[in-house]
Amino acid sequence: MRTYVRMTFHSEGASPLKVLETMHALGFEESMGMHDFVYKWKDKTAIADVLRLIGEMHQQLKGLDVGYEITTIT
């Protein structure tokens, strides 16, 4: 299972490097193509775990002025 995140950056927001550091701290890896980051789940995961991760990501990105879109694929 994987959770993908696509980011939208703004010139008045945090630098892409700061966002990269934040996402790495959460366990995401950078990704090329349609999505910017991917979280590779080790085991089959419940929706509650995905929501917990996304909630944590949301909190860490607050104030950085980036938008995001999430896709989780089993």
Summarize the structure.
This protein is an alpha+beta fold and 74 residues long.
Please give a handful of descriptors for the protein shown.
globular; four-stranded antiparallel beta sheet; alpha+beta; single chain
CATH architecture: 2-Layer Sandwich
Number of helices: 2
Q: Numbering strands along the chain, what is their spatial order in the largest sheet?
A: 2-3-1-4
What's the helical proportion of residues? 25-40%
The CATH class turns out to be Alpha Beta
Radius of gyration of CA atoms, rounded to a whole number: 12 Å
The main β sheet shows up as: 4 strands, antiparallel
Class derived from helix and strand content: alpha+beta
If you had to describe this structure to a student in words, what would you say it looks like?
It is a single chain. This protein is an alpha+beta fold and 74 residues long. It has one domain (2-73): 2-Layer Sandwich (Alpha-Beta Plaits), CATH 3.30.70. The protein is 34% helix and 27% strand. The chain is built from 2 helices and 4 strands, in the order βαββαβ. The radius of gyration is 12 Å and the shape is globular. The termini are close together.
Helix and strand topology:
Blueprint: E1 2-8, H1 16-25, E2 29-30, E3 37-40, H2 47-61, E4 67-73
Antiparallel strand pairs: 1-3, 1-4, 2-3
